[in-house]
Amino acid sequence: MTRTRTATRIEVYPVREDSRLLARFARPRPGQRVLEIGCGRGLAALTAARARARQVVATDLNPAALSALRHRALSDGLSVAPVRTDLARGLRRFDLVLSNPPYLPTGRNARDPDRWENLALDGGPDGCAVTARILRALPSHLRPDGVAYLLVSSEQSASHLARLRSGWRRRGGVVRTVARERWGEEVLSVWQLSRASRRTRRATPGTGGRPPAPRPTRFGSSRGAGSGRRNAPGVA
Ligand SMILES: C[S@@+](CC[C@H](N)C(=O)[O-])C[C@H]1O[C@@H](n2cnc3c(N)ncnc32)[C@H](O)[C@@H]1O
Predict the structure, then answer these.
(1) Distance of CA 98 to CAs 59, 106, 139, Å?
(2) In the chain, what are the domains?
């Protein structure tokens, strides 16, 4: 991810190396529900739709991004539901969640005057502001067996990223790095996140092989997922 240094503004974040790296993980099993948070041109969402996901929802705050994605999906004969919302606000739970959030460290005075360019790049003072918000919201949008892939960068504060990883683990989640690529000075990585280790979800003897009833954790119980939440078009 780099800042535009010419007078040409990006109305919608173009497909770049970070977009392509994340899209490699847009491989739902047939019938799964997929969410891309902060979709831009929606490469990951379109890739998931091609893989016959049951449903693909893609969010952004930039209306031009959603409109570009809608047109692309229509022209490719793919089913993607673009939703204008802040991250995943109002949406239910998904099997696969993907996000390449804005992550460039950006002080107050360094913000791009173009609102949409800034929205695509500005990760707050240490680059981790949006990543941290996504991690806070993620438990409400992941199904119990769901998996999320999140793009992170060496441009972000390493110590804050380490705190975010350990915070996820402290709440019972699992996180591992599943891809790492160098682009010039920058190293891009993809984190794979899930809500609980297989060990915690292992069937308890005497329950006929059924997994134990969900215990309330700081992620909340898996029961009643999404109740009272606004539904995206066609989101169950
Ligand atoms: C770095 S771009 C990535 C775009 C696309 N996912 C890709 O990989 O090419 C980040 C995207 O997140 C969107 N975004 C930033 N903050 C957001 C928010 N609070 N809610 C929804 N979308 C947001 C931006 O408009 C932008 O399209």
Answers:
(1) 11, 23, 13
(2) 17-199 (3.40.50.150)
What is this structure's pTM? Answer: 0.85
Task: Indicate the range of 13-22, 48-57, 201-210 predicted with least confidence.
Answer: 201-210
Strand-strand pairing, 174-183 and 81-84: unpaired
188 Cβ neighbours under 8 A, 6+ residues apart:
17, 18, 21, 151, 152, 153, 154, 179, 180, 181, 182
Q: What is the distance in A from the centroid of ligand 1 to the CA of 39?
A: 5
Cβ(78)–Cβ(127) below 8 Å = no
Q: Which of 17, 83, 119, 138 has most ligand 1 atoms within 8 Å of CB, for mutation?
A: 119
The span from the CA of 198 to the CA of 196, in Å, is 7
User: What one-letter code names the amino acid at 95?
Assistant: D
* pLDDT, tens digit, 9 for 90 and up, residues 47-103: 999 998 999 999 999 999 999 999 999 999 999 999 999 999 999 999 999 999 999
Phi and psi dihedrals of 217, rounded to 5? -125, -175
